């Protein structure tokens, strides 16, 4: 029973720690870049993965990131010296992607942004 309780505490701790990165922080971060120069953003987070031009002559900068998380998915029950009990814990690997789109005007100012996928920020 103590082992099961300790595994639950470890699992919950992992969930709490992983909860530090949130989607709300991601939105706040990039809302703050609207109206600023794209070169300042590039200096801060690096070069984009790709760019393309729109029919209105605006340019879109695309950043794509992947994230691999390991999350607990359930205890492994086995039979031991003292009978049945928890002998370990299963983990599931989950890959998620985030694609960030930043649209700039002819002067290089960020006019709007959008995203696809699971986007988180600290």
TrEMBL record:
Recorded superkingdom: Bacteria
Keyword Signal annotated: yes
Signal peptide: 1-21
Keywords linked to the UniProt accession: Signal
Protein name: Lipoprotein
Organism name: Sulfurovum zhangzhouensis
Lineage: Bacteria, Pseudomonadati, Campylobacterota, Epsilonproteobacteria, Campylobacterales
């Amino acid at each position: 029973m103590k082992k099961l309780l300790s595994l639950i505490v470890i699992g919950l701790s992992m969930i709490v720690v992983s909860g530090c990165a949130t989607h709300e922080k991601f939105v706040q971060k990039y809302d703050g870049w609207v109206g600023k120069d794209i070169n300042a953003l590039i200096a801060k987070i690096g070069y984009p993965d790709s760019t393309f031009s729109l029919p209105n002559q605006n340019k879109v900068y695309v950043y794509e990131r992947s994230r691999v998380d390991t999350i607990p998915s359930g205890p492994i029950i086995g039979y031991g010296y003292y009978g049945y009990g928890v002998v370990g814990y299963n983990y599931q690997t989950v890959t998620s992607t985030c694609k960030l789109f930043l649209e700039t005007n002819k002067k290089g100012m960020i006019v709007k942004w959008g995203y696809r996928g699971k986007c988180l920020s600290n």
